[in-house]
Design goal:
Strand order of the largest sheet: 1-2
Distance between the termini: 8 Å
Radius of gyration: 26 Å
Order of helices and strands: HHHHEEHHHHHHHHHHH
Structural class: mainly alpha
Helix content: 55-70%
């Protein structure tokens, strides 16, 4: 198992480097850099002024060099302006060049500064991840138990009326996008047109203090969409386990049906849904973009939209790093948990 984990970690590091380099390359294309220069300076800047701005800030270096500086494995650039001022990636304002560090990248904890929010990217990501983490926690607490209960109940008696009813509900929730269900929930339960003002149509106040009134609708919108997929996977896995030979043997021995389900079928039936549940974490992290925008909840997904829409390169790169790490870590945990849940699988 140790060798397996070390091998997977090595593959994860290589994958993360490749994916972040692709994002870095795309965000550092010259049209994006030109737009950044005009946003930070003047939209009427000439081509020579744009090139001068990009040169002073190190954007015209080779892409591999810039990527190494951003990661923190190459020394930051140092440029002497015509007025005698020394500028560089690792030289903060007011700090003498000789006292500044040589390396200042992701590995050193320097994520850069947001050109839109005028704050350190690390602080922005920490605040927004905390908000989205709270949303993800409540979504998982509602989505996972409900989906497992629906899937187990449907799979216990395949083909029954209960199975057909629950399967129809699961398919309907999965087939309804979040922007549709979210708008319907707001129109029915939060607008003055219908009159059922049970909840608030915005979750902005939930960032300071989440309550049932201002937080339930976004949680329900996300949970319903993911619930159906997990329930369908659980149902299929449960139905397959219930036809296994050892289940038939337990029935012939007179074991009660509840004991068969709880003690014999449930653990084996949860192997496939466990993998699906782990894959919900990256989806929750990046897939909440629509819901957070719809309910004006300024979390990680909302930050991604703002960074992409405003050409905030440093913030967009920081968001990509977090997304890549979350996806790779959840896949590793999923593989390890799959081995423990299924003893028949051997890791060489």
């Amino acid at each position: 198992m140790t060798v397996f984990i070390l091998r997977r970690v090595g593959v994860m590091i290589l994958t993360a480097l490749c994916l972040t380099f692709i994002v870095f390359f795309l965000t550092n294309l010259y049209p994006n850099l030109e737009k950044l220069a005009k946003t930070q300076g003047d939209f009427r800047m000439s081509d020579e002024e744009v090139a001068s701005y990009l040169g002073r800030n190190g954007y015209l270096q080779p892409i591999v060099v810039k990527y190494g500086q951003w990661i923190g494995i190459l020394p930051g650039f140092v440029i002497d302006d015509r007025d005698g001022v020394t500028r560089g990636r690792c030289i903060p304002p007011g700090v003498p060049p000789e006292e500044a560090p040589r390396f200042c990248g992701i590995l050193q904890g320097d994520w850069g500064s947001s050109t839109v929010f005028k704050e350190d990217v690390s602080k922005i990501l920490g605040d927004k991840l905390a908000l989205t983490g709270r949303l993800m926690l409540w979504v998982l607490l509602l989505m996972v138990p409900s989906a497992l209960i629906l899937g187990v109940m449907a799979g216990m008696r395949e083909g029954s009326r209960t199975d057909r009813t629950l399967s129809t509900i699961a398919i309907t929730t999965t087939a309804t996008p979040e922007y549709v269900s979210g708008v319907l929930f707001i129109a029915v339960f939060a607008s003055t047109a219908v009159g059922l003002k049970w909840f608030k149509g915005t979750a902005t106040s939930a960032m300071d203090g989440a309550t049932f009134e201002n937080f339930f609708l976004p949680v329900l919108t996300i949970a319903l969409y993911g619930m159906g997929y997990i329930a369908r996977m659980t149902r299929a896995s449960m139905a397959e386990v219930m036809t296994a030979q050892y289940i038939r043997t337990a029935r012939l021995k007179g074991v009660s049906f509840p004991n068969i389900v709880m003690k014999h079928a449930l653990r084996n039936a949860l192997i496939a849904p466990f993998t699906v549940i782990m894959l919900q974490f990256p989806w929750l992290l990046n897939g909440v973009v629509i819901v957070e925008t719809l309910f004006n909840y300024k979390g990680f997904g909302w930050t991604l939209v703002q960074a992409a829409g405003n050409n905030d390169i440093e913030l967009l790169l920081g968001v990509s790093v977090v997304s890549v790490v979350v996806v790779l870590l959840t896949q590793l945990i999923s593989d390890i948990g799959y081995v423990y849940l299924n003893p028949r699988i051997s890791v060489s």
